[in-house]
Amino acid sequence: MRFDEAYSGNVFIKSHGNYDESDVVIYGMPMDWTVSFRPGSRFGPAKIREVSLGLEEYSPYLDRHLEQVKYFDAGDIPLPFGNPQRSIDMIEEYVGTLLEAGKFPLGIGGEHLVSWPIFKAFKKKYDDFVVIHIDAHADLREEYEGEPLSHSTPIRKACELLGPENVYSFGIRSGMQEEFEFAKTSGMHMSKFEVAEPLKEILPTLAGRNVYVTIDIDVLDPAHAPGTGTAEAGGITSKELLEAIMLIAKSEVNVIGADLVEVAPVYDHSEQTAIAASKFIREMLLGWTK
Amino acid sequence: MRFDEAYSGNVFIKSHGNYDESDVVIYGMPMDWTVSFRPGSRFGPAKIREVSLGLEEYSPYLDRHLEQVKYFDAGDIPLPFGNPQRSIDMIEEYVGTLLEAGKFPLGIGGEHLVSWPIFKAFKKKYDDFVVIHIDAHADLREEYEGEPLSHSTPIRKACELLGPENVYSFGIRSGMQEEFEFAKTSGMHMSKFEVAEPLKEILPTLAGRNVYVTIDIDVLDPAHAPGTGTAEAGGITSKELLEAIMLIAKSEVNVIGADLVEVAPVYDHSEQTAIAASKFIREMLLGWTK
Amino acid sequence: MRFDEAYSGNVFIKSHGNYDESDVVIYGMPMDWTVSFRPGSRFGPAKIREVSLGLEEYSPYLDRHLEQVKYFDAGDIPLPFGNPQRSIDMIEEYVGTLLEAGKFPLGIGGEHLVSWPIFKAFKKKYDDFVVIHIDAHADLREEYEGEPLSHSTPIRKACELLGPENVYSFGIRSGMQEEFEFAKTSGMHMSKFEVAEPLKEILPTLAGRNVYVTIDIDVLDPAHAPGTGTAEAGGITSKELLEAIMLIAKSEVNVIGADLVEVAPVYDHSEQTAIAASKFIREMLLGWTK
Amino acid sequence: MRFDEAYSGNVFIKSHGNYDESDVVIYGMPMDWTVSFRPGSRFGPAKIREVSLGLEEYSPYLDRHLEQVKYFDAGDIPLPFGNPQRSIDMIEEYVGTLLEAGKFPLGIGGEHLVSWPIFKAFKKKYDDFVVIHIDAHADLREEYEGEPLSHSTPIRKACELLGPENVYSFGIRSGMQEEFEFAKTSGMHMSKFEVAEPLKEILPTLAGRNVYVTIDIDVLDPAHAPGTGTAEAGGITSKELLEAIMLIAKSEVNVIGADLVEVAPVYDHSEQTAIAASKFIREMLLGWTK
Amino acid sequence: MRFDEAYSGNVFIKSHGNYDESDVVIYGMPMDWTVSFRPGSRFGPAKIREVSLGLEEYSPYLDRHLEQVKYFDAGDIPLPFGNPQRSIDMIEEYVGTLLEAGKFPLGIGGEHLVSWPIFKAFKKKYDDFVVIHIDAHADLREEYEGEPLSHSTPIRKACELLGPENVYSFGIRSGMQEEFEFAKTSGMHMSKFEVAEPLKEILPTLAGRNVYVTIDIDVLDPAHAPGTGTAEAGGITSKELLEAIMLIAKSEVNVIGADLVEVAPVYDHSEQTAIAASKFIREMLLGWTK
Amino acid sequence: MRFDEAYSGNVFIKSHGNYDESDVVIYGMPMDWTVSFRPGSRFGPAKIREVSLGLEEYSPYLDRHLEQVKYFDAGDIPLPFGNPQRSIDMIEEYVGTLLEAGKFPLGIGGEHLVSWPIFKAFKKKYDDFVVIHIDAHADLREEYEGEPLSHSTPIRKACELLGPENVYSFGIRSGMQEEFEFAKTSGMHMSKFEVAEPLKEILPTLAGRNVYVTIDIDVLDPAHAPGTGTAEAGGITSKELLEAIMLIAKSEVNVIGADLVEVAPVYDHSEQTAIAASKFIREMLLGWTK
């Protein structure tokens, strides 16, 4: 409660007050206009921030405290409703600015298409990096009913941009037949159904490499994440996703950026999806950034 | 979407099985990608059809039975997610086809932007017609945050297309200052807050004219229509909207087409908005078409 | 309900348009009038069909596509509200017609009592077959508060009709003391609490035999299936039920029919139960029919 | 269900502990098995009792206190699930017992069919009485899809039992064409759409007569009563229903019994329907009984 | 989106950035620990701010724009959970500070007990002022089950502090018999059931006087405000409450402060109560402050 | 609240009618006024009782029937809203009375602070006993924002009262850094994240000792217990908690009392948390008391 300056309201818990002094920047991408089923992830970033106030600032998983990380929550990029092309241009430009300033970008979606401009911005700075993709859906379509800008396409685009050999998908349990065939024949890596076990095998092979991690909350079973647009039965538990975050944190890869997408509060009647997501972001902050 | 055979899906109660023999065509426009607040109206048409099964087929308001009207429910136009321009082109073309075939188009939204291509299609057939617009919002913006294709602009566009003197708005209780100034100075008609009383005055002045009616469900108070994206307190009751429908049915205007938009089932926890909307459509079918 | 033409209503995704050319017939049994606790499963079939539109048509579990199976969704049997006797007579007659026509009947409930007339119809065609019953509840009561026609009795009736040695229950975690005693002493098989592990042992002993499978969605933990009338804590995950479906698909039993019952949409606030059920039905179609 | 001792369960606020000393008996009829649309009213009586604890015991409408009335809440009649015939027999017998004991029966449904056996029980005691029926639906069908025992038929049956000239319906806004024709031609009274205004005209004509009042909660608009199976837009407000209760209380009719039916808690997400119903019952207790 | 200063997040729409330059201060009181029925109003202030982003900044009721008022949203007073005494001390002190600084205090509750320390703070500055109290409940108890600090007592305390002749209650439809007797005999004013009509009579008699207005959202019917702890059927519409706000705005009283209390988001499934409350606050800002 | 006669209200299924003849007393503590996040657990006891009616009376886990245990449900202690000190005094006194009478106290919360006065009451009777604490949260704070009476402090207080060596926590996955340091250095036992596995190791070391067990429902993952105030992702399943209850039942410890706390029905949209809690209480009754 301050009388003499702007009230600093809805930000991720313990956000640092100063952009310049921060190493990590949290930013929201409130976009859901290309989704094919249930929209609503545009409100994901705001809700995750809101419920983060219920989090403890200390992690017993990592024995670290949020005060040990300098991060700044920059709010949401003001994306134009219903204009996917302009939205992804704005995201690419914004993430580019963060990377130029030496920040670690930690993005919150919005629909999964938002990862595509992020990949492009990273490609400008990093010649060589790997994408770890944790999701229920392959997202390997070339287009969706004629639209190349769709929440079903970002990982296919990543394969084109970075080479399929630099894309690693985990937990996939849904997609078109063509997507699974592409996964088998293109040279990318895809682990079906499971996340933690295959990560234990793959992570050592990536030691020392730059890694960008994108997590779609729907990799969780709908029991753990009902608040998402395209729920798919048969997923992993939130305990398993925490384990996966710990495996990456304790591996020898160099995480250079990350995002968490597809939380849709309107289907999240007891707020459990947003509460879980805010905890994952705490662990990502504590485990993946310096 | 087929023009000439039964739609094999969820249809409005008692839909006739044959397009050619029908006088009225019900069609859905599952689009919500330009809305600025809460999306979800893309599921409006399907839900309204689903709950229509709970309706009686007889109206004690009009003493008419649905068997007295020949209508065909054509299902939803397959609009491309996240592409407003292509969506409105498809709507304009589809409604044009209906008008060429001599059908009475009865549209179900979707967001309110869908009315704009409908107006354009009608303008090609009718030199002279009037729009009656029943809504909480003025929808008179020239653009929304730089986007001219927005759910806040269709009535402004109608004024440009038809001349402001041919646009009549009722029930308006929200908008920007500029919109209310435009309403005062442009020559259009705007009744603030009320619907039935001002209709009683205006309808006689429109006797004999062609009239297209567009109803945004949010003209109802949120008590009566919680299931909409942009709820606005202080609205009319569903009893009053039924009265407005009766006033038009019993007037001497010539209704040439109509739509009902902005039902968003995800906020409609007891289905009351969809149930009301399906009743309004029954009354529109019975009262406004031959 | 028509046997020989397309159902003009909501159908399971990719339903074939022609009854005669189909090998499998999906049919709904919208009945919930004998349930002792929370009603609402009458809307299960319609909801499962509705959300099936969000499914992919390809299964990465079985590497099969829905186009490889010819199935016809016949809609719901028009059961008379509040009349259990007439309802079960209609179901028995309808399933009998399917069996005469050589179809594979795939039923969607409705309360679990619907399986009783199905068993009777199968008994008329097959001298010898086995029931695999996957459920939280034993359903072995002789009557429920004086009513022999109750959702708590169908498996007891199956034991009487087929001989207890031909009834195999899995996952049971609730029932009266008498039901568990009957299970122990009658000669039927009952695996308490678990499904996949005991199936691995039992399935080889059934190789070559005709098997009818009935799945009550409440075998899932309420975390995975909140949308059911009689939720019972301590159940299996949807991942485990998928595994059970795969075990049956890959076994050497001859599946001759199946049903999935007790999805009650009104308790299913984020649609997760219906979404899971529609996926199970896709896998049953792909794995259990030719 | 005990007649002579305190019910050890959830009771209506301030229920008297002793059956014998009470003038009024509140009883629940948890039946919903013949409803054609959304079931769930079986839980109405329990929920109304539960939320009655939030009521004040004093009415500022009538300036009376619940301590001025001696009433006993007898709990629910244990109706057999899915057996309409036995259910209505039990209700008729139970109400008969109350009438023999000189009690004022105040029933809580449950579906509207429960009023039919009540009418029969009253007919045995009273040669001459009138039914006041406040409802959205005419309930004048002879049968519903072949079933004469249906929640759509009780008022037709009342006309047959008591003579149509002794049946007065108010607020009706839905029904089949045949029902409205019957209302016009049979000699019964039906006021469409409105309740309080026509009551003001009718009540004086009934002065001195015995009157049984049955209220279907769906006479309220869904804005006021979302928690009901067959919501119908265009209804009255709860303020108007309170006014109607006061009009009867202050009239010169002799109320001999009453019921309130069709509250279905599962659609009543903020409990507003049950809260309103419990207030109506408080006013009925204070205004209609001695 | 700013890079170089703290993100100004969850504040009432268009809040001025500077406390010193502001005439009005909006402050939240997230307290609900003395409520006797359903808690949850502690989250009212945050939710009202959140949905205020969906508001237009212009009022067609008053033809005024939020830019014409200088107000600062100071966030919530950090009240200690479960400690009513310390909470009300903090509120009294905070409001005292605002009054010393010449600000117009506009408070958002929280439970209604918060108004009691506000009255005390105002009494220190103003020798003579009047309270206008708009509510469903009399709030005139001396204590609640032995606790004098209760959400049922603030208006009784106001009568003691200011003299009953300076307290005017409107819309009251619930309370204990003793409260209504106190209202009749003490010299205070109470209008039962209605708000706008009696205000038209009373306001002229208060011309020129200082007035503090406290609005309990439950004066609205539960149809209009389901999101509150103690919903009471038979209330006014949000249209009528808007009319009451306009009547005060256009009267000759001198409004010196105001609050709006008892919005409880957890019962507000479609956000309609919070949306209405944020609109009322906009109108209070535009109509009651300079 | 009566000690010597049947509670006339909602009771746990099969509650014995007589206090004196009962060995176990179930009692509710409807208190939630010190919680720091989402209130609502005051309604936990009533809801758990209500849904207990859907339970079977027989446990297939323990092969025991509720008729084998004599228990009496005494209803809720009438705790004063918003007064923590008086509330805990009342609980301590009430539990003391039960212990004097030789009853086994089985408490239902309410917030976790209620366990503190229970510990004090037990300490008066038992010189030596151990607390087994199953929870997501450490609850080891010395105070919460200055308040020593808080739902975050009861286990710290237990350490002070009983000696840290007599406190065993299981399943802990959230807390402040100081709490985890206290756990490490004080001499108490804390198992992080897991419950069943560490219990298997610890229970044999407690053979023959008196044990009080307190279970916070939020030890379950939010997938299994969404209906609680402070949900924390990454928890155990209800299957695992059932296993833990069985491990204690089959161990050689002497259980002297128990409680289950923090069920908050308002976040429990499909009642799954209350349904699970009522099952846990059935198993505690059958497995932990004679």
From TrEMBL, chains A, B, C, D, E, F:
Pathway it works in: Amine and polyamine biosynthesis; putrescine biosynthesis via agmatine pathway; putrescine from agmatine: step 1/1
Keyword Repressor: no
Cofactor(s) recorded in Swiss-Prot or TrEMBL: Mn(2+)
E.C. number(s) listed in UniProt: 3.5.3.11
Entry-linked InterPro entries: Agmatinase-rel (IPR005925), Ureohydrolase (IPR006035), Ureohydrolase_dom_sf (IPR023696), Ureohydrolase_Mn_BS (IPR020855)
Cofactor binding remark: Binds 2 manganese ions per subunit.
Amino acids binding Mn(2+): H112, D135, H137, D139, D216, D218
Keywords from the UniProt entry: Hydrolase, Manganese, Metal-binding, Polyamine biosynthesis, Putrescine biosynthesis, Spermidine biosynthesis
Coiled-coil blocks: none
Catalytic activity from the UniProt record: agmatine + H2O = urea + putrescine
Domain of life where this protein originates: Bacteria
Biological-process GO terms, alphabetical: putrescine biosynthetic process from arginine, via agmatine; spermidine biosynthetic process
Alphabetical list of Pfam families matching this protein: Arginase (PF00491)
GO molecular function terms noted in the UniProt entry: agmatinase activity; metal ion binding
Function description: Catalyzes the formation of putrescine from agmatine.
Family: Belongs to the arginase family. Agmatinase subfamily.
Protein name: Agmatinase
